[in-house]
Design a protein that fits this description.
Blueprint lengths: L4 E9 L29 E9 L9 E5 L9 H5 L8 E5 L8
Parallel strand pairs: 3-4
Antiparallel strand pairs: 1-2, 2-3
């Protein structure tokens, strides 16, 4: 049986358009908020795969920047209950897809 899979990966920054604001046309006041939460440094890579036979057995993989649990990272253990069960979540020091 031949299995054809197409995979795409893309980086996901958590801080978009730091020097821009958006509001409705004609508004007199535009409120802003300074970024101090650290979200501007957090990033991830998402991998999406589709099977050519249209089966639904492939799930998204999200790789966050951070120390993996196997190396003592604690972020996953703090957040794991918040991830959707249909998504694989992993951590890597640079949020790269460079492992098995």
């Amino acid at each position: 049986m031949v299995m054809i899979i197409n995979l795409d990966e893309t980086p996901i920054p958590f801080h978009f358009a730091a020097d821009m604001t958006y509001n409705l046309k004609g508004e007199k006041t535009v409120s802003t908020q300074a970024e101090k939460s650290g979200w501007d440094k957090r990033q991830a890579t998402v991998l999406l795969a589709v099977n050519a036979n249209s089966s639904q057995d492939l799930v998204p993989l999200v790789i966050f920047r951070g120390e993996p649990p196997s190396k003592g990272g604690s972020i996953f253990n703090k957040e794991k209950d918040q991830y959707h069960p249909g998504v694989i979540v992993n951590f890597n020091e640079k949020a790269w897809n460079n492992g098995s």
